[in-house]
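Budget justification note: compute hours in this period were largely spent on complex prediction jobs such as the one shown. Inputs:
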Amino acid sequence: MIRASRETLLTILLIVAALAVGNVITARLPKADEVANLPFVHTAALGVPVTMRTGTFAVTKVDASPIVGTQLDTAVTGGLFLVLTVDVTASGEPLYPASDDLRIVASDGREFGGRPPVREVCGPAQPGLTLTCMLPVEITPDALAGSRLRLPAANRDIVGPGESEYAEIDLGISADAAAELAGRTTPILLAKPTVKGK
Amino acid sequence: MDADAPSVADEPATPRHATADRRWWDRNKLWLLLLAPLLALALAASGFRFARLYLPWNYTRPQVTAGTTLTFNQDWAYQAKLKGHRQATLTVVSVRTAESEDGRKAAPGAILYRIELEFSAAPDVLMEGCKVFLLGPDGTMYGRGSGTVDLPGAMPGFSLSCVPRDAPGPSIDAVHDVIKTSERERPATWRVVESIALPEGVKPTQVRVQWDPPDYALLGVGT
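Corresponding output:
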């Protein structure tokens, strides 16, 4: 009798211990969905080309103004338009870079972006030929310092999962540079996309 | 007495676990037979993530010739409302470099190619909405609208004319969801000209022509 109950007690303790250990392990292991949805992030800095599956991208210049325009239209903001000059070299097939899906992410996590009020459509970029585009993003001046560009590899598909590969490019805007950019007032004319010669 | 009574050691040599398995198979025969179909159903039910792989929304079925003429066949559907079949003979007449074409010339670092194609189809076949690409030796696709510079004072065409402008033949009326035909019957054979800029140093090796997914045509560039 005593032997049986000792065995039973030991079995119960072992089962509880195994369940507890198993619980701790499964809580700490990543779940399948989390792993499957991890994005492919490429980090880079201003001026450094980033290669993603759709092509190579580089932000070469950062400018700012409250007034931005094309030959047909002008937009004025109470905040600031950050104008990024981006070099795009598509690979594999012609590409329209994701100019509406890109985001400027401030150091506190705020995101700015979306379809700008004026734009020169960037694309199609021919594989092997570098296309230079000027992309405006409306932003508040206090979000400039330490901000980075999150550029998806491609535009979002109408049907299907969101883009999971993107570049995080540090725009290298220090607090002093941010103050200087916020003080600029010269209107910026968005140039049509041009192919960079060799 | 004990020596005469049968004991466990004298029973025929079937191990105990085998006997138990056989009984388990028997007991669960129906569910075991259903196991494979149910697994297949479970996989299919979680397959929505892969809808883009099995629905014909990408260009996945090439019709290829190493030569310059191909008879292209595909079924097309407009949403769920209209259907048809497209049969056409496509011929690559020439792929040549050009100084300029249709009001555009190559941007610096690029060379402009003029592609002349001949299409041949019955007058009631829907032939609008084609796209033409050049393929490089590594399979890279090059398309229109990129790598070119507008000539001053010129008015380049907006899109490729896949059918004769004055007699385009059938087209889809997207407002009323019907197929409408042009007044003039389309000729049995007509020419299509496209211009594409390729980076210097890249020679085109194939011409790609496509309408609706998933089928597309691949032809050689000829001599």
